[in-house]
Amino acid sequence: MSSPEKNITSVLKETRVFPPSADFVAASLVDAKERDRLAEWAKRDPDAFWAEQAKSLHWTKPWTQVLDWSNAPHAKWFVGGQLNASENCLDRHLTGPRKNKAAIIFEGEPGDTRTLTYQQLHREVCKFANALKLLGVGKGDRVTIYMPMVPEAAIAMLACARIGAMHSVVFGGFSADAVADRNNDAKSKIIITADGGWRRGKVVPLKANVDAALEKSPTVEKCIVLNRCNTAVEMKHGRDLWWHDLMAAGSQHCPAEPLDSEHPLFILYTSGSTGKPKGVLHTTGGYLLGSSLTHKWVFDLKEDDVYWCTADVGWITGHSYIVYGPLCNGSTIVMYEGAPNQPKEDRFWEIIEKYQVSVFYTAPTAIRAFIKWGDHHPKGHDLSSLRLLGSVGEPINPEAWMWYHKLIGGERCPIVDTWWQTETGAIMIAPLPGAIPTKPGSATKPLPGIEAEVVDKSGNAVPANSGGFLVVKRPWPSMMRTIYGDDERYKTTYWSHYDGIYFTADGARIDDDGYIWVMGRVDDVLNVSGHRLSTMEVESALVNHPKVAEAAVVGKPDDLKGEGIVCFVTLKQGNEPTDALKAELKAHVVHNIGALARPDDIKFTETLPKTRSGKIMRRFLRDVAAGRQSTGDATTLEDYTVLAKLREDEE
Ligand code: PRX
What we know:
The protein is of the alpha/beta class. Helices cover 31% and strands 23% of the residues. The chain binds adenosine-5'-monophosphate-propyl ester.
């Protein structure tokens, strides 16, 4: 991960402040006084603080040590303790009034609906866990899950957790090659998929992608297929099995395996600036505590809330705030399969009205799309059931925040802007909504127990309102444990910039009131629609096209997606830069990575700006892509004329 060449300058100034209403504060789980008490306690005696919080989980064996940091940066939390994530999310709700409470209210894109109570969900998970066991899946084995947003995705995850297998969920928008890469990196034994999933009225052919992926995934022995869309798929004899056949045969009795607190729960791949995607590894006890505690605190959880997080289970937000956090807390969640504009642009508001959603958690990129589609869509629905709104994935522009506040929140719902990462496992910086007045565009303050700071290149805290790097100074329970199969990369990426301090690769500033304003990534990682994509992966996909010699990929500001993808491409001799080739290269990237990486623009160029040592200077390309003048230091540029030429091409 490259460090920026100079400190960051912050330009955003925002002065509006929105305190929660007196009613909201009176009913809140954590008010300002309680938050201060928790934060002070966590600072004074972190072990005692976390030990107390961890009592909220069901442990089958108590731990003997809260944190072992003696082998930093490898943390062990709740050492010696044993528990099972699936038991915490299911079994313990079955002995009281939550037994017949709705766990998952599912709405399919075509309009089909299904509700699973905690008891029903438990039964499905047990049956599927037994099916996995019959197929030889055991503790520590890796299972790839490549599914649409249907309850079976959560059932598959919880079944893995129940028997101690590690799941690796791959977002359904990724291509066959991306699935194969992740299968191979994790050495997955089994893949679970569906014939397809519904997206904008069409079926995404998941099984066909898996068939292609499995030609290049030698470790995968079996493929389990859910029949979601009733489409014809090829079932390979001896390898492919129907979900419903396995479930019909499976016993519904499956005790949860007691697992060490540090037993791996899952791998989730995320993009870095160099090399292949990183398999972020999370373990059981700390992760479950982080996701459940933050879900309770940040969403000010009430027993009768109807909670809807619009993320996909293929991302960390889906892991922590659709599956593990909410189910561990015994919440009722809404799960929606499809697109927000199917059949019309008011689908989300229709769902909120239909299920009386009270807490709604979405991403700025979605909010910008709603703004574009027009106010009449939300205005046409009764959204009065909402009491709290959330945002995640990228900085939210103050104007989008104001629209969300007015049009969706009816000016009465606090907005929790939540900063965190795949690596942090759980929300790190966010308002506790009854305790902290919000400011549009700021995630406000670190949660109690989280020592986030903004520092300069040498690791010193920067003065108020100066830009710097966001770091975390103390380990926290839901932190990643390593990069699966590449511990060296874990150490260099996150822990080599500052001694004993976690480097987030985000820029930020702290204002006079101690509020943190996150400004985005400082490395070569794109944030497209709230999802991290590595420039390097897109470049590799381009370069493996036979006509491409070299490629550099950068982001440019995009009103809707946050960042759009611009590719600068040099062609091998004898190839003509044509529009047809542009279209071909775009399709090539989609084929290699998935539709989420589709380039917005391809620019052919004869050369790329490079340092004397041959490194592509992407910051200049970012300026060209955004139509800005370059202000930074250009002295290391090998050939000045390259930049002038690129700009000419733009005009
Ligand atoms: O740059 C930050 C941005 O998203 C990155 C993490 O991406 P990922 O691991 O894919 O996880 C996304 C969901 C947690 C961060 O390093 N980011 C996420 N949330 C915010 C944010 N930037 C500003 N404000 C946020 N609330």
